[in-house]
Amino acid sequence: MCAAPGGKSIALLQCASPGHLHCNEPDFHRSRWLQETLESFVPLPHRNVISTTELDGRLIGRTNANTYHKVLVDAPCSNDRSWLFSSDVQQAAERISQRRTLPAIQTELLRSAIAALRPGGSLVYSTCTLSQAENSAVVSNILNSCPDVLPVDLSDMANTLSHEFTFAANVTHGLLVLPHKGKAWGPMFVSKLIKL
User: What residue stretches are annotated with the SAM-dependent MTase RsmB/NOP-type domain (predicted)?
Assistant: First the structure.
C-alpha cells in the first residue's frame, strides 16, 4: 500500500513467489523511485507478475474489497533513524507536526488493508519508529474496532531471530526491533493480523 522505494517488494518477489504482486505508492516522486527499483532488480521476463498503482492506500479497501490474500502495510511513520542524521530545523518542525497526524493515517491504512483482504487473508503492518502511538496503539485500535481481525503471535519468529536482532520487551501485538549502533537497521515494528 506504501511500496516505495521497493526493497520489501523485491524481497517478497524473492521469497514468496507471488502469483501477482500489486505495488502501490501514492506519492508521484516515490512512485517513480519504486518503478526504477523494480526495473533495476526484476528481470524483464518476470515483470509480468507485477502491477503498480499510485492510489491513496486509504481507498484501496473500497476499490479492491476482498481481493488480496496478503497485504503489506509499510506505513508512513516518524522514521526515527532518519532523525539522527537530520540537522534541518525546518524539516524537524514539519516532522513534529506530521507526527501528530500519523497514527490516524496509519489506522486508516490498516482499515483499508483489512477491507482489501479476502477472508482468511493476512496482513503485515510495519513501521520504522519506536513510537508506541504509531505501533502497538494503532494495532490495538484496529483489534478493538474490527471483530473479524485477530493478531498472530510472532514470538517464535523473535526466538529464531534473537541472535541477529534485539527485541524490545513487553510490546503488545507485534515485535519491535531495537536500533543497533553499529549497524544500519532498526527500529522496526512488525505486526501480523488475520482476517476471519
Answer: 1-196
